[in-house]
Structure formats: structure tokens, C-alpha cells
From TrEMBL:
SUPFAM superfamilies: Probable bacterial effector-binding domain, Putative DNA-binding domain. This is MerR family transcriptional regulator. Keywords: Coiled coil, DNA-binding, Repressor, Transcription, Transcription regulation. One of its GO terms (molecular function) is DNA-binding transcription factor activity. CDD domains: HTH_BmrR. It comes from the Bacteria. The keyword DNA-binding applies. Residues 4-74 form the HTH merR-type domain. PANTHER family: MERR-FAMILY TRANSCRIPTIONAL REGULATOR, REDOX-CYCLING DRUG-SENSING TRANSCRIPTIONAL ACTIVATOR SOXR. Pfam families: MerR_1. Residues 88-115 form a coiled coil. PROSITE patterns: HTH_MERR_2.
Length: 266
């Protein structure tokens, strides 16, 4: 069996770039047992493998090289145990974050798949209560909405990502005049689970989906009111609208999708 290994051989054994091994040597983290004075070649022994294993393991946990060096030079059992426990907690937190990200992705995929087959309506549907973050603040343009979203992003982002499909607007009937003269009463953000914030109450809702590239809130509000009235029923509360597919998701205008929804009086 070989009793020494060149830096190139160590690089292949550990899948670590030669440049990285040289850097480890420069900072005194992992030095070769011998460096040829004439050629500068670095040589390592098999007995050093365990040390490099530990360095690679700690680095994979996210431990900074400076901290690893300190542990390699002088560390007690309790100190090393404390380090592992600290990074175990970091790893658990990252796993939770990845699970949340995976859930967000799955929900977005499901939402967009449904968007491809959704009946355009108008139609009635029975919906469960939905948790939302609600911000009541009047504005008249989508630019104003974007500014408002930036203001509340830090508060809401830990609950759900702010993206197309999760953000909606609401407007009371008395503020619906025409598509040219329009004042929204605020915005809402759909949350994934019950969280003690506001809710969209369960019940029957009238819904219509628009494939138009521009917003026509007044037009679709009147369509829903006429549809519900034709069934001998009445609407109540504000009009809720949210864009599910926008120009960022699809450049095809006939694939844009906006939802308009209003509660039917029970």
C-alpha cells in the first residue's frame, strides 16, 4: 500500500480541487506531512485521511473554516459536542425551510395545472374558509399596490411567498364605478393554513375567469351580479380579484388568467 500521496492524488480521492487543498495548507488548516523544498510538491500520508474527513464533514454542515481550524487545534469533548449540537439545529431549520419551499412549489404547480382546465364561468362554487393577510388601504393603480406589497413583505413573507396567484385585491360595490375610474379598498394575500389572521368566510361564491390581458373589474363585477340575480339570489361583500397567470408566467396573451369572485348571500 502506498505510504504517501501527492496533492493531485488527494484531490481525486476526496473530490476536492487542488486549489482548495493548497488554500487549506496556506491557512494552516490541513498541511501536508512533507513539502519538497526544491519542487514545492506536497505529500500526504494515509494517517491524515481522518483529519480531512472531519474537515469535509464540518464544512458540509456550514461550519466556517476559521472555526474548523480552531476545533482542529484545540477542542474539548464538550466544545466539539456543542458545535455539533449547534449545527444540528441549523440543519433542522434548513430542512424545515426546504419542506416549506417544496410545499410552495407543489401548490403553485397544482394551481397552474388547474388554471389550464378551469371552467371560465360564471359559475357557483362552495368554498371553505380561507386564511388571508388583509391590508385595508385605498389605492387606484397597480403601481400603488406594488409599493404597498413591498411595505408588508417583511411581515408576510415568513408565512407565504408573495407571488402571482397568492395576491389579490378587493373593492366594495360602492367604489365600483367604471374600469376607468376605480378605487380599490385594499389587498389580501392567501395564506397556506389557519394562522389567526383574517379569513375569507366559507360559503357559496360566484366566480368568473378572464383571459383578457387588461383588467376589467367593473365589467366582470356586473357580470357576476347579473348572473347571481338571474338565479334569484343576491351578492354580498366586496369583489375579490387576483391574477393567476400573468405576463411573467406566460407571454401568450390567451393564457393570461384573472379570477373575479364575490360571495353569494346565504
Amino acid at each position: 500500500m502506498k505510504d504517501q500521496f501527492t496533492i493531485g492524488q488527494m484531490s481525486k480521492l476526496y473530490d476536492i480541487p487542488v486549489k482548495t487543498l493548497r488554500y487549506y495548507d496556506e491557512i494552516g488548516l490541513f498541511t501536508p506531512y512533507h513539502t519538497d523544498g526544491e519542487t514545492g510538491y506536497r505529500y500526504y500520508r494515509a494517517e491524515q485521511f481522518q483529519q480531512l474527513d472531519m474537515i469535509s464533514f464540518l464544512k458540509s454542515l456550514g461550519v466556517p473554516l476559521k472555526e474548523i481550524k480552531q476545533k482542529m487545534e484545540h477542542s474539548t469533548l464538550d466544545q466539539f459536542l456543542h458545535t455539533l449540537e449547534k449545527y444540528e439545529e441549523n440543519t433542522r431549520r434548513k430542512m424545515d425551510e426546504l419542506k416549506t419551499t417544496h410545499r410552495h412549489l407543489s401548490q403553485k404547480i397544482q394551481q397552474l395545472q388547474l388554471a389550464k382546465t378551469t371552467e371560465r364561468g360564471p359559475l357557483l362554487s362552495s368554498l371553505p374558509k380561507r386564511s388571508i393577510w388583509k391590508e385595508e388601504r385605498s389605492f387606484s393603480s397597480l403601481d400603488d399596490m406594488e409599493v404597498l406589497l413591498r411595505e408588508i413583505k417583511k411581515t408576510v413573507n415568513h408565512m407565504t411567498p408573495i407571488m402571482v396567484g397568492s395576491v389579490g385585491l378587493f373593492v366594495s360595490p360602492e367604489h365600483i364605478k367604471s374600469d376607468e375610474e376605480f378605487v380599490y379598498d385594499g389587498l389580501y394575500i392567501l395564506l397556506e393554513e389557519e394562522s389567526g389572521y383574517d379569513i375569507l368566510p366559507e360559503g357559496t361564491y360566484a366566480t368568473v375567469y378572464s383571459l383578457e390581458d387588461r383588467r376589467r373589474d367593473s365589467y366582470y363585477y356586473n357580470m357576476l351580479v347579473d348572473f347571481v340575480s338571474g338565479l334569484g339570489m343576491e351578492t354580498e361583500g366586496p369583489l375579490y380579484t387576483r391574477q393567476i397567470v400573468d405576463s411573467f408566467i406566460s407571454h401568450m396573451k390567451d393564457e393570461r388568467l384573472t379570477e373575479y369572485q364575490i360571495k353569494v348571500r346565504g
